[in-house]
Structures
1.
Amino acid sequence: MSRFAFALGAILVGAAALAAALPGIAQSERVVRITAKKYEFDPPKVTLKRGEPVVLELTTLDRVHGFKLPAFGVRADVAPGEVARVRITPDAAGKFDFLCDSFCGSGHEDMDGEIVVE
Amino acid sequence: MPYHVDRRDFMKLAGIGGAVFASGLGLPKAAGAAVQQDFFFVQLSDTHWGFAGAPNPEAANTLKRAVAAANALARQPDFIVFTGDLTHTTDDAQERRRRMAEFRDIVSALKVKDVRYIPGEHDASLDRGAAYQEFFGKPNYTFDHKGIHFIALDNVSDPGALIGESQLAWLSADLAQLKRDQPIVVLTHRPLFDLQPDWDWATRDGAKAVELLTPFANVTVFYGHIHQEHHHMTGRIPHHAATSLIFPLPAPGSQPKRAPLAWDPAAPFKGLGFREVAARTSGPALGIEELPLNKG
C-alpha cells in the first residue's frame, strides 16, 4: 500500500467516523456544509450527483436565517450556535434555487444560491 | 367566475374616471344585500419610505405624490388602508423609528383621517413588530364598516413568514361569530397562498388561514408584497395584490431573479399606483379599480 493510498484511507475512515458521530447521519450520506450570513450563502453554488443521498449542514455566522429549497419541498431555520440539517436525494438533474426565507434585512431579497444536480 | 360591474355606477360612486375598470376578477357575487350602504375605500401598499436607489430616483417624492393623488379624488373614500412595507427596512432601530415617524407625518396630509395600517416584513420582521406597534398599533385586528367585516392579518412580524398558531386561533374565534354569508375582507401583506415560493412570495402557514376562511361564501383578500397587480383564486376566495408605490417587481417566475423593474425616465412612476375598492348594496359586493400614479 502506497503512502498516498494509506493517507487517503485514513481520511476516508476519519470522515466515516465523523459522520457516524453526527446524530441522524448515515455513513453512506454525503455531508455538504453551507454557511449563511447577511446576505449570502457560502458556497452559493453546490454541485450534487443524481441519486446520491446528501445531508446539507447549515450554520449561520450572524443572525437567524432560513434555508428553503422549494423544488425539494424542504426548509430549515438556521439559528446562531446551532447546526440545521436537511436531507435530500436528488432524483433528477438540473439547477435548483435555494433562498433565505426568514427576513434578515436590506439584502434579504438577494440572499439565495443554487444547487446543481449532475 | 366572471365578474361584471357597471362602470358608470362605479364612477358615480367613486367620483373618478379615466381608468379602465378591471374585469374577470372572480369577486364574490350576490353579497351586496348585506352591505348597508355604498362606499369605497382606498388601498395603498409598499411605499417603502426610506428606500434609495436606481429603481426609483424619485423615492423621496413618491409617497407625497401618492398622498396628493388620493387627496385629488373627486370623492373621498370612507377610509384608506396601507397594506404593509410602509417603510424600507434598516438594521438601525433608531433609523427605523425615524422612517416610521416621517411616514406618519407625510400621510397625515391625507384628507381622509380614517387610515388603517398593517405591517410588511420591512417594517416588522427584524424586531418582531416592536417599532411598528409603537407607531401604528396592533398588527392584527378587525373592524366592521357598513356591513362588511374587515380582518387585518399579520404574516410578517414572525420573520419566517408565519401567521402563527396564536393568531390563527384568534382568527378562528373571530370567524366563529360570523354568519357564513357575511361579507368579509381580509387585509394582509404577503400572499396567503404559494404564489412563487422560490421568490419568498408566500405565507408559510397561509393555507391554514385560507382553510378557516373557506366555509364563508363572501371572502375577498387584498394584499401587497409583490409590487404589482395580481389576481388569484383559492377555491371561491379571490386574492388581489396591489401595485407598489416605490418600484414594480417582475411577474411571478417571469425571470430568474425578483429584481426591481428598471425606472423608465420616459415614463416616470410607471408601474406604480394604488387601488380603489367599491362596496355596493346590490349585485357583486365589491368592485376594484386600479389607479396608476403616473396619471395622478
2.
Amino acid sequence: MSEARLLTNTNSLRRNVAVGALVREREHTDTLAHKLEAKNFNFYYGTFQALSDISMVMREHSITAIIGPSGCGKSTLLRAINRMHDQTPGARGNGQLMLDGQNIYGPETDAVLLRRRIGMVFQRPNVFAKSIFDNIAYGLRIAGWHDRKQLAARVEQCLRQAALWDEVKDRLHSSALGLSGGQQQRLCIARAIAPRPEVLLMDEPCSALDPIATLKVEELMLELRREYTIVIVTHNMQQAARASDETAFMLMDPATRSGQLIEFGPTNRIFTNPQDKRTEDYVTGQFG
Amino acid sequence: MAQAERLSTWQTFQQRTKHGDVIFWLLTLFFALMVVALVAAVGYVAWVGSSEARGRFGLSFLFKTGWDPNAQNFGALPAIYGTLVSSGIALLIAGPLGILIGVFLSELCPQRFKSPLSFMVELLAAIPSVIYGMWGVFVFVPFFRSWVAAPIAKSVGKSFPLLAGPVAAGRGLMVAGIILAIMILPTIAAITRDVLAVVPNHQREAMLAVGATRWEMIRKAVLPYARAGIIGGLMLGLGRALGETMAALMVIGSVKDKISTSLFGGGITAASLVASELPNANDSMHESTLILIALVLFGITLCVNAFARLLVWQAARGPVGSARS
C-alpha cells in the first residue's frame, strides 16, 4: 500500500466538505478529559459474545467516531453506553465501561438516571406522533420541567441549537410527522439535547438522509461539540473523516464472530497513517 | 422470427394476467357485496316482521315500560336500559383490567410466562357463555349477594338509591354486568396485547433514551401509539356484551316490566328477552313485538359501532392541526 494513495484518499475526503475546516482546527485532543472510558469491556447476548475486550476512551467536548463493516459490533457498543440493551433478554455487559469514573454496568447505576445524562439519536428519525413542540417537551416533562414559560423557552432554545427553529417556528403545534426526513432527524437531535445530557450518542444518524440533510447534521454536530461529548457510529467513512476528532475502527473476529477494536486514535492519523493493515485496507476501500 | 414468437408468448401471458385480475376483482366484489346484502336482509326481515307492533305502538314503544303479553301491553324501555347498563358496567370493569392485562402480556411479562398466560387468556374467551352463566348462578350470585351487595345496600345504599336494596334474589343488573365483564375481558386483553406488539420498537427506545422509566415509556409512547387499536378492542368487547344472551339471562333476574332504580335490582336485556320469550310467543302481536325488540337491539349496536368508528377515526387523526388531518 503506497503512502501516496492514502494521502490522495484522505485529501479527496477533506476537499468534499466545507465543514472539514471546522473540525481540523483541533488536531490535538489528548489533553481533553476522559468522559467515557472502556477497559476490557465485554458484551454478551445470552451465551454469544458480541464484543470482546474493548478498551478506548471518549473525550469530553470531542466527537468520537466508531467505524467498521456491518456486524462488527459498533452499534452494540454504542447502545451499551446508555444501556439500551436492558430491554433485550439475556443481554449483559461486563468489564469496565465508565462514565466520569462510574461504572455504567455497576450495581449502583440506575439506567433511567444514566440515560438522562446520555442522550441518543437513532438511525431512523423516530419522532412521536405528536406535535413538534410536544416531541421535545415530553423529555423535559419527564426530567421534571413543568413551568410553561421555561418549557417553551427551552423548546425554542433546543430547536435553535438543532438549526430547525426557523423552519418550524410557525407550526410548533402541528404534527412532527409532517416534517421531512432531515427535519425529523434534527427534531430528534433537539429532543435528545433538551434535558441537557452530557453525552450524545448517535447511531448512524444520517443513514436515512440525503446529502444536504447529512451536511446539516454534521455541521450541527460540530456546533454541539462545544457543550456535549459526542459518540457517533457511522457506515460512512467520509463522515467519520470530516466530522470527528478521534476514530475507533472495529472488526468482527472471523473465528468467534464477536466484535473487537482494531485501532483507535486521532481521526487524522487513522485515515492517513493507520498502524494496522486491516484499518488501512478498510479506510482505503480495499475491504469487502 | 424467434423474437416475434417470444413477444407474442409474452403478450398472451400478459393478457392472461389481466383476465386473472378481472376475475379476482369480481370474485372479491361479489363476496363484499354479499356482506351488504346480508345486513340488508336481516334488517328487512326485522323491519317487516315487526310491522304489526310498530303500527300499534309507534315510537313511544322505545320510552314505555310494561310487559304483559295477555293484555298486549309492551314497552321496550326496561330492555334498552338493561342492555345499556349491564354492558356499560361490563365495559367499565373489563376495559381498564383488559388493557392492563394486555400491557402486562406485551410489555412486562417475562418471556417464558408469555405463551402460557396468553393461552389462558384465549382459553377464557373460548368458554361457552352458558358455562359462565352457570358459574354465575351457582357461585358468583350467592357470593356477591352476601358479601358485596348486602353490605353495600345496608350502608351506602341507604342514601344512594342506585345501590339500594333489596338484594334478596341476588340476581340483577350489577351481577349481569360483572359476568359480562369477565366474558369480554379476554377479548379486550388479547386485542390490546396484539396492538401493543406491533408498536415499533423505535418508539419505545426514543422514550427510554430521554430518560423515561418503563411506566412512562408505556404511558407516553406505547399506549398513545396504539390508541386507535385499543379503542377498537374496547368496542369489540362492548359489542359482545350488548349481544350476549345466555349468561345475561341466567343472572339478570328477568324483570321485564319495569326499571329498577337500584343496580342490585333485576332487569332484562334485549337479547335475553327475545331468546327467552320467542319460543313461547303464541300470538302474532307478541311475536311481532319481540322482533321489534330485536330491531331495537340492531339499532343500538349500529349506533355503538358508528360511535366507535368516530372515536377510532379521531384517535388516528393525530394532534390538532396535524398535517394529516
3.
Amino acid sequence: MTTTHLVKFVLVYPPGQLPPDVKAEDIPDDEPIGSFEDYIFQFSEQPPELGTNHHLNGNQWTIAQVQTYQALQSTPGATKAVHIAICTPDGAVPQRPDWSGGQPQVLYIPALTNGTLALNEDGTNRYGIAVETPLNIPLNNIFEDWTLKYFQSFELVSASAPQSFKDVVICWCKQEPALVVV
Amino acid sequence: MLRQTGAIALTTILVAVSLPKKVEAQTVNPAVQACFSNAACTATVVLLGGVYYWAVTQSGVTQHFPHDGEPGHLENPEGSTEQWEETIWAGSISEAISKCQEFAQQNGVVYVGVVHNRGRSYVCQVRTYRS
C-alpha cells in the first residue's frame, strides 16, 4: 500500500443540507443547524487535483481547493505530503470560517506502521486538532490506543486559507498484539 | 486517548456548572453512565437546594439523579496539570473547536484540542493549568 500522499477530503455540505448519517431528529434540541462537514483520509500515490470528481460518502464531490503540506526533512518517512482537499457538490469554493479566536491549530493523524490509517470503533478516521504539537510525546510510549514509533511533520507550502494548520503531524504507531481485537 | 485518573474537587460552583466528565468516575447512576456514551445526551452537575445532582438532558427532557458528594476541583491546590475530557456533538471540526474553547472558558480551564472519536462526536480536551 502506497503512503506517498495523504489526502484529507473535506466534504462541505451546502448550508441546511444534512449528511446521510444525520437525521433532523438526531440533532440536539439546543443545537442550531449549521453547515456540516465530513472528513475522509486516504493514502494515495498521486496528489489530489482541482476540479476532479470523487464519489465519497454516497455523494459526488468536486475538489474546489487544495492546501498542501510538505514533509520536513528533519522528520523523514514514507509520506511526502499531506493535502487538504476541500470539496463541494458543485466545485464552488465554500465559505468556511477561520478557527475560533484565531488560535493556530495543529492537525495530527495517527497511522499504523503497516501503512493503514487508524480508525475509530465506527470505522471513521481518528484524528485530532490541538494547539500544541504532539511531537514532545516520547517514542515507544502509548499514544491514544497505540504505541508511538515515530513522527512525520509537515508544513504548509500552498497559500494559506481559512482553517489552515500551523503544522500537520502523522503519528506513526504500532498496534501491539495485546491490543488487537479479534 | 488521554484520560484523567486522579480525584478532583471543584473550587467554585454557584448554581449550575457543566463539568468535564471523569473517565474513571466513582459509582454513577446507570442513566448518567449511558449518557456519557451518547453524543445526543448531555450530563452536567447542578446544585439544587444545597444538594448536587446529575442533570441528564436528552431530546429536551432533563432528569436529575443524585450525585455522590461534591464534584471535584478543577483547580488542583497542589498546582499540577490535569487533563480532562468532555464529549461534544458538532457538525464540523470548527464547530467542535469553538464549542470546546467555549467550554474551557466557561469552566476556567485551558483548551487543549479536540479528537474525533465517532460520527458527529468529538472529545474536547481541556486542562487545569498552562504548562
